[in-house]
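Reposting from the mailing list since nobody answered there.

I have sequence plus structure tokens for a pair of proteins and want to know whether others read the tokens the same way I do. The first protein:
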Amino acid sequence: MPGVLLGLALLAWSAPASAQTAPASSFLSRFDFWVALEHLSHDDPRYNWDAKWAAELDLVDYGAGRAMFAAEYQTIIGEEFRFFDPNQGNYMLEGSGSVRLKGVEVAGVFHHVSRHLSDRFKRFPVDWNMVGGRLLASVERGRTQVRGRADLRTVIQHTYVDYEWELDTEAAARVRLRPRTAVVALGQLRVIGVDGSRGRGTQYGVRGEGGVRFDGRAAALELIVAAERRIDPYQLEFSTTTWLSAGFRLTNR
């Protein structure tokens, strides 16, 4: 999986400058959203469903780059106390500013994550703030579109977690079969450096997914299957777990 991810990312980052034409200066020039729900194949009754609502907004596009804001809310649902038992509510907020260079977009990023329990007692916070850099690129050739992202961030504040830095990468591909139908694939790799306070070393997470996409007039439906190794799936425990999942994503991206 890391090799596939790296290959897709290198393909995306090798895009010529013409693949990213700088737009004219504009206000609120882009709004992307996605809503996803996946059923998790796992023996632990805390992990049955993973639901996400997310959006990205270009606040200002100034031609040479853009100022962006992103937000995501995640709910983890199990069956520990009842059949439909939400047990986590996690938030991600992010601001960034970028510059477009030849073939890539380079950005500075502020990244905040806050994790919460649902219907369970927890007084203390579990959160962290990071700052770092990002590389973005995309290329479209014929019926194939590939995009890549790589973030390298350092922790400037954290509560409860042992994180020090993070490498977060993603590569996605879409191959058009018919005007409104495509096959899609996505790979993610996360590496988290830790401070040793929890008695563990560098953490590795990976996800691979594939599926089919159906484009509508205003949005698209993606039906996906995935395999994932997730870092710290439960915020009060320091561990990794692996599961298979299947679900859908609604998006206009």
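The second protein, same order (residues first, tokens after):
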Amino acid sequence: MSILYKSTRSNDVQVTASQAILRGLAEDGGLFVPMQIPKLEVSLETLAEMTYQEVAYEVMKLFFTDFTEEELKTCIARAYDDKFDTKEIAPLRKADGAYYLELFHGSTIAFKDMALSILPHLLITSARKNKVENEIVILTATSGDTGKAALAGFADVEGTSIIVFYPKDGVSPIQEKQMLTQKGDNTTVIGIKGNFDDAQNGVKAMFNNKDLEQKMKENGYQFSSANSINIGRLVPQVVYYVYAYTRLMKEGAINTGEKINTVVPTGNFGNILAAYYAKNMGLPIDKLICASNDNKVLFDFFSTGIYDRNREFILTSSPSMDILISSNLERLIYKIAGCDSNRCADYMKALTTSGSYEIDANMKAELADFIGGYADEDKTAQVIKKLYESDYYIIDTHTAVAASVYYDYKEASKDETKTMIASTASPYKFARSVINAIDTKYDTLGDFELIDELSSLSKVKVPQAIEEIRSASIRHNTVCDTQDMQKTVESILKLK
């Protein structure tokens, strides 16, 4: 069955998977969505006997139907190789009654590696399939993790260059150093004097600027995106939910077909949307529990049906979730609006013009499978300490937000359904916040002294991604105002 893609904001254009991957964002500003979500074609029992790479093929082939078997399997093999420090790629760890899906075993120790390891290969294959001769410029905004994972994925990939914008004072020291030390002649990193939403809005504005698009074309360039707005990012994330469920089956933790709950720490909404797509494919997921930090715009949305970004932006110890405009929520809005692109476009217009919108009762009823929760800074720290003391298991701040929401939900609902928590980053990425949660006596140590102390406490070897930046030199030092983002891009690309 061939799957085509359309925009969430119009019915005018239908494109293939490779065309959607290449474009990143639809011309009308909408996001590409599959015209139908395919069902899994092989049994859960069969999937349980497969490797991660084999499961990836069984899932992705259903979405990327214009890729040949050889093309897709080649992309998968190049992505999920020894750059991951475990053959399982995404192992599970049981701690205090929940199953933690560790998504941080890739080269940049965050869950973004799971999709950004394969996106460059999907993109280059898509370019060849569509006879693209322009150099592809990956333009991306990051709240911390996407940037490094995208930079690592696209570094020195022929026919591409990558420009990453990040909030200068809105990421952890380790996240920033990972980006600023990135090698590759085709990589550029730019700090902005603003927050992630400012960076994301600036990037979207450039994608939607027709004059800039024409100028790019005249100079032999075209934009694409590595953000989770790109369907080539979202679909690979579906894979690890399918894989994890079948591992729980294989280990005897659940029976075949038994429903589980899934908790996902959520910022831009891509990761939990992938779980929702997996559920729609037939994976036995019951509740999708959306965990927010103090920037609880999504918690309020699931509680009230009102999405309102008109609020204070709060910097937290879980910076990858410090987001007030969750771009991927648009795909869910489109779905629960009955795939009505006009209604979806109206909601997104309201978000742009007034900063808020309210869904109707019928749409809210479609969200019955979602549960919203949030954890403030104190609760986040308490959960890190609790898990360390109970299981000697150390989690990062984002995972701790999810764990806190899980405990709150379980206590309030008395729901004993077995639960999987998406563990989205290594604690080493947020060492100071993590170790201070365990004991503040370490706070006088330097960043890398903290890393070594964390290794001693956790009995986990310091990841190669951290070792690499101990003595690495800074290669990127550009900072700009938000209003100068386009001018900076034009200067980097030497547009005439």
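Reply #1 (J.P.):
I read it the same way you do. The chain is about 45% helix and 15% strand.
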